[in-house]
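Record now logged for everyone:
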Amino acid sequence: MFLNKSYSYWSLVLSIVGSLFLVTPYLISPVHPQGFIVLMMKVMLIIAIISLILGCATSFYAIKKKEEGVKKYVGILLPLFIILVIILIPILMGVGFILNDFP
């Protein structure tokens, strides 16, 4: 059945869904979002945060239950990778500007 899947499976699915909902507003947003699109972007962001948190929680539960496979680690590593990219982008841009000033 669909609901009888392992916790590592749900960890993988929730993390991927959360990541997609996190990226989608950037892809669909116009230059100056107004009205309904702003509401949809906020809803997508909330769904993304909830999905990523649930993905981490089910991943920890799968590790606690000692399930087999690598899928149980995706729920933790995917949100950490997203946070790392968000933190590293401004740092790498700053390094690029510094290197560009000294030819």
